[in-house]
Amino acid sequence: MIAHTSAGLWTLFYFVFALCQLFPPTEFITAGLTAEKLFASLFGSEHLNFVNYHMKRTTCNIVAHLCLPLGYCLVLWWTAEGPGRPLASWEMAAVISSALLAAAGLLRWYHWWRTDWCSHPLARVLTSYSETGLWRQTASEVNREFRSVDKFATDAIAAHRVIITDNWLIKLTPYTVHLLHVDHVYLDLESSSEPHVLSERTCQTVTCRVVSMRPAVPDFVIRVTSEQLPEVRHRLGRRVRNLRNVVIHQTLTERFVDAFRRVVHENLPVVVTEDLEQCIGCGEVPAGVRLARQCGQMGPGEPCRECNCRPMWCLDCFAKWFASRQDQDQPETWLASKCPCPTCRSTFCVLDVRRVLPAHS
Ligand SMILES: [Zn+2]
Ligand SMILES: [Zn+2]
Ligand SMILES: [Zn+2]
């Protein structure tokens, strides 16, 4: 009876433990209880040797997870009756099959390790990108780009991570590393979750299919939040396609830029004679606004002042500057608030922002 109760308890405990290994909740990961956290010291540094680190990490997960059934058999055998008891035939079968599973994992690891990782699936993908046929050459390129601060990377704790460097799009999962050169991908938006409101921010999860143009790499799916999507779009440009017209709710800043733009379009424009330079914010369009007071100093706080700066910003960049200077927890007050001119620091409100019209047009 006692043996039965303890076997039941162990089964329950082991079942929860195994489930947390396979689908680790955030708390479990931060507590360092997953296989890849327990053995992390054997992988080297992710920052210095990204490719090698993840080859070892994924291998560790494969081996550890394939050993879970054998672990259960051993725990149960040890706790139920103690070692030395003869096993029933069905128990024997369970032990043998779980031992075979564990052996398969270990053999796979041994094979990759013995071939100096050349036979690892990621090494094969890297080889296909190498002119000399050496995967380490491409790997060092990927490592170098990963070390750069200028990269897009989703939450480091999540089991599935997406990283976009200058040239590579990478998805990390517990067992695999998907890697593609950004010139060989299209990112098709597939669906978006129902938006939920997070302290004034609307957040959605957007599912995107990464369409591979390399026969060696199959398509895969990544998930990013609607707030991360503009950054992904910025990095992949026209490679992000919304063929299914997936509705993405605007971010808070995007909604503010729309409202700001509407007010400025109602303000009287000013005519300028000088040539307009490119916007210093985005460098993509000519400068389109300047400050010229017309508000009569309404609103609370510091009074608006004259600004004599020449037009340097486009309307959208100016709106983003305005938004960035506001209390981020109170977006409803933004439009009625004030902001310093980015150049001369004189205070202005949205009524003082005017579109500029070149005199010769
Ligand atoms: Zn701009
Ligand atoms: Zn100014
Ligand atoms: Zn004003």
TrEMBL record:
Provide GO CC annotations from the record: endoplasmic reticulum; membrane
Record keywords, A-Z: Membrane, Signal, Transmembrane, Transmembrane helix
Q: Does the keyword Ribosomal protein apply?
A: no
Q: Where in the cell is it found?
A: Membrane
Judging by the UniProt lineage, the source's domain of life is Eukaryota
Biological process (GO) annotations held by this record are: protein ubiquitination
Q: Please give, as recorded in its UniProt entry, the membrane topology of this protein.
A: Multi-pass membrane protein
Name the InterPro entries on file. TM129 (IPR018801)
Q: What is its main location?
A: membrane
Signal peptide positions on this chain: 1-18
The family assignment reads: Belongs to the TMEM129 family.
Its recorded name reads: Transmembrane protein 129
Q: Which organism is it from?
A: Amphibalanus amphitrite
**Lineage of the organism:** Eukaryota, Metazoa, Ecdysozoa, Arthropoda, Crustacea
Q: What gene name does this entry carry?
A: TMEM129
